[in-house]
């Protein structure tokens, strides 16, 4: 039987965790004869009774694993930890506030069985406030315009990934993570399942505006260096403007000397020239910073989906080779 892993981030969900667990179990019971399960709860440093409740769930259910963080590291890190630990043939990431309905995860599994590697749940409607819907919509438009990877709209982190995909995802170790973007950038066969997103069952969102802005910022900065390129463009504009300004100052000085205040021409030329040059050089520095940034992210150069070859020596899976070298950079003495 195939094994399905569930990665379940929890932060102060004491009021909904029991209900979530029973709902999930009820949904899973329907396919119990076809799959085995692994439910990985990641407690992201909850300050309420979430951990006690998870421990109780763990004590009664051999499929449940609980990982508890020493403090709050944030949602993206919590799901990363869960994915790192998952051992299933497919891994499903979902919220534990019942905004991601357990029933829908069964549909994700069905699509996976049809041959898709990534199945993301896409919100047809959402019970969020107008403000959140609107900002989310505008944000994904902006993000897709700025970045090379096409990040599907109206999706969160609720998705299923094949074991091959999670193996690749584990190679991305960047700290400021935008997991849904990383998954989108991996490629493979991806598809969507539409669902209606209800309101949260209890409690309040753990994504206040501050965290949302941080996530949004991470999304843009980890998939685009266009803000840096903007500096270069601004630099050119500033430089052009300074040339025009300097020409103007010279014309005034030469043809209308009675209008020119003494010392004005030199002052204006120096200010404009320095401003233009500074902006331009900042752009050049920015270009290098952008490159350094993409180098330090240490992302895999490519993702292999299949290797076809005849007999002979085995081609080691590039993923494992890369992980090995990345894991022991210090041991290279040659
Ligand atoms: N979460 C987490 N760490 C955090 C914030 C949230 O693990 O710092 C979890 C939370 O328990 C929930 C999921 O991430 O399962 C989504 O959070 P939330 O429902 O607050 O976000 P929203 O649905 O409002 O965007
Ligand atoms: Mg929620």
Explained architecture:
- This protein is of the alpha/beta class and 334 residues long.
- The protein has helices at residues 17-29, 50-60, 75-85, 102-113, 130-146, 163-169, 179-186, 209-223, 226-255, 264-296, 318-327; strands at residues 2-10, 35-43, 64-68, 90-93, 118-126, 155-162, 190-197.
- The protein has a seven-stranded mixed sheet with strand order 3-2-1-4-6-5-7, sandwiched between helices.
- Helix 9 runs antiparallel to helix 10.
- The two termini are 46 Å apart.
- It binds uridine-5'-diphosphate and magnesium ion.
- Magnesium ion binds next to loops.
Query: What spatial form do the alpha-carbon principal axes imply?
Result: elongated
- Estimate the mean pLDDT confidence: 87
Largest sheet: 7 strands, mixed
- Strand adjacency order, main sheet: 3-2-1-4-6-5-7
Helix and strand content put the structural class at alpha/beta
Measured by DSSP, the beta-strand proportion falls in 15-25%
Head-to-tail CA distance between termini = 46 Å
Helicity, in percent? 40-55%
Q: What order do the SSEs take from the amino end to the carboxyl end, as H and E?
A: EHEHEHEHEHEHHEHHHH
How many beta-strand runs?
7
Low-confidence stretches: 320-334
Q: Number of helix segments?
A: 11
Structure ligands: uridine-5'-diphosphate, magnesium ion
| Alpha-carbon Rg, integer | 26 Å
């Amino acid at each position: 039987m195939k094994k399905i892993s569930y990665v379940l981030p929890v932060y102060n969900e004491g009021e909904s965790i029991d209900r979530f667990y029973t709902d999930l179990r009820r949904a899973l019971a329907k396919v119990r004869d076809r799959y085995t399960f692994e439910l990985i709860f990641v407690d992201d440093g909850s300050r309420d009774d979430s951990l006690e409740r998870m421990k109780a769930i763990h004590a009664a259910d051999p499929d449940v694993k609980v990982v508890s963080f020493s403090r709050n590291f944030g949602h993206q890190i919590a799901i990363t930890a869960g994915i790192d630990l998952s051992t299933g043939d497919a891994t499903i990431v979902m919220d534990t506030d019942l905004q991601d309905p357990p029933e829908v995860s069964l549909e994700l599994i069905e699509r996976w069985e049809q041959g898709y590697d990534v199945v993301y749940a896409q919100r047809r409607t959402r019970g969020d406030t107008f403000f959140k819907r609107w900002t989310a919509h505008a944000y994904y438009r902006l993000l897709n315009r700025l970045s090379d990877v096409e990040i599907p709209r109206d999706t969160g982190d609720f998705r299923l990934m094949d074991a091959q995909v999670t193996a690749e995802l584990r190679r991305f170790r960047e700290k400021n993570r935008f997991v849904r973007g990383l998954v989108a950038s991996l490629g493979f066969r991806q598809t969507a399942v539409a669902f209606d997103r209800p309101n949260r069952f209890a409690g309040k969102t753990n994504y206040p505006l501050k965290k949302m802005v941080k996530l949004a910022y991470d999304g843009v900065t980890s998939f685009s260096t266009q803000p840096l390129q903007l500096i270069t463009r601004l630099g050119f504009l500033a430089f052009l403007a300074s040339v025009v300004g300097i020409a103007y100052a010279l014309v005034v000085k030469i043809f209308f000397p009675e209008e020119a205040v003494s010392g004005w021409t030199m002052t204006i030329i120096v200010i404009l020239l320095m401003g233009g040059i500074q902006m331009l050089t900042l752009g050049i520095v920015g270009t290098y910073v952008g490159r350094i940034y993409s180098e330090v992210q240490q992302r895999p150069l490519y993702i292999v989906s299949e290797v076809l070859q005849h007999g002979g020596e085995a081609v080691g899976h590039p993923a494992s080779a890369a992980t090995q070298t990345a894991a022991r950079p210090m041991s290279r003495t040659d």
